[in-house]
Model the fold of this input.
Amino acid sequence: MATATQTPERLSSYNPATGELIGSVPIFSAADVDAAVARARVAAQTWSTRTFAARTEELVAFRKALAAAADDLAALMHRENGKPELEALVEVMMSLGHVQHATAIASQAMATRKVSAGMLANFRATISYHPLGVIGVIGPWNYPLFTPMGSIAYALAAGNAVVWKPSELTPLVALEVEKIAKKTFALPDLLQVVTGAGATGAALAKAAVDKVAFTGSAATGKRVMMAAAERLTPVLLELGGKDPMIVDSDADLEKAAEAAVYGALTNAGQACVSVERVYVAEAVHDRFVDEVVKQVRELKVGGDDGHLGAMTSPAQVDIVRDHLQDAIAKGAKVLTGGPDAISGSYIQPTVLTGVDHRMKVMTEETFGPVLPIAKVHSVDEAVQLANDSKYGLGSSVFAGKAARSIADRLRAGMTSVNSVMAFAGIPSLPFGGIGDSGFGRIHGEEGVREFTRVKSTAEQAFSLPLNMMTFRQPKDMTKRLRGMIKQLYGEGVVSRAGDVLRKLRK
Ligand code: NAD
Done:
């Protein structure tokens, strides 16, 4: 672990299902965070000058070591976060997919590109991509490995060092990953973990990092952005969501119901891209609801073979209860679960109908195992309601022929068609949102370039008699320029700048 020297207090990590103390970690002070960033800067200087092939070799070793520790990482996440072991293992697998993908595509994503030089036809114009330096990664508790790895893997593959502040609710899994990184990377400070709560995160956002990649709530994201503004540090914000699903009248209802149930309830609904609200065409609404209820009744909460685990944070249980009570008070009907079926950190999956946008459960992030279903009279109404949100992260559409055109009308960073959450599992698709869901992209080539600085180079290959970047111009230059403007941009547009230049030279 990166060393914490300043603060004597420690942070405890508990099993949310049992309340058992699992371990404790140091709380990094601002001085500790600054020291970690300084060490990371030294590591970044060496790492950034390595070839892609050399970096690939170490990233592959890192991935293999993580894969070898998959069972331990999953078991730890199960205990620390409360999710079922199967879901924890899926999380490890998806995280490894991103380490592999980022490693494989980094050189291609950062390859220098030649672009048209436009009217400066005697120039070679190129765009090149360079590592930023040190990336501060601040992560949440709901996917303690997958979510931060979406930034860490791409930042490392792009040639940066990383200082990672995991959530105070799930610090142990981060420390395991740091141990593996120290064994596999030649540079021990390439990936460091700084543990602590909000103050440690705030210190990282203010530190001398070259970018902050933050995943968490919109409220904290705003604070991170304000703190980073002190040094004009760029930020990548992956925030919350209120993902809609649209089910059209010609959708495969059984598949749509299965996807809605999984999308709303996986990880006990604590996913930024959970299905948080469903809009179903009037003609199939009742059949869809029946199918959903049937499938939800087959699910088990808690225990070793449970489909849904414990909620990770007691504060989140209170938010879910509040949303359910608010919806019921405003007329929603509870078909399964409900506020009375909340017991400690366990919430029974709750299906609601008769919901509308006066209710928090349809407008604010619930982040729990709740599936509110609304009836709509047309696709237009469904799209209008789906887009009636300050968030814009994921979304999904179940429909026949119109599926793709409905998807294109959704105001969201990502859409799955006849599926849910699939965009998160396809490593080449950029992941991110708009509006209160944040900005910037992880995953895919965009995810690599997010952790680079872009450099433009204009290289003069040969000189032309007509050179506009000098004061030494012929007397009739004004007249020539007037002609040029007309020919290039006016009525007599000629397709290639080179043709104009040739003409003007005559
Ligand atoms: P949170 O905002 O409470 O905390 C996130 C992280 O920020 C934690 O590590 C926390 O310690 C740190 N933090 C708290 N105060 C800070 C401050 N002032 N400055 C810097 N860091 C600070 O979020 P959470 O409750 O851990 O996570 C749940 C939220 O994360 C949900 O809204 C969820 O939708 C979102 N999320 C988004 C994505 C995505 O990719 N878009 C993925 C997972 C989770």
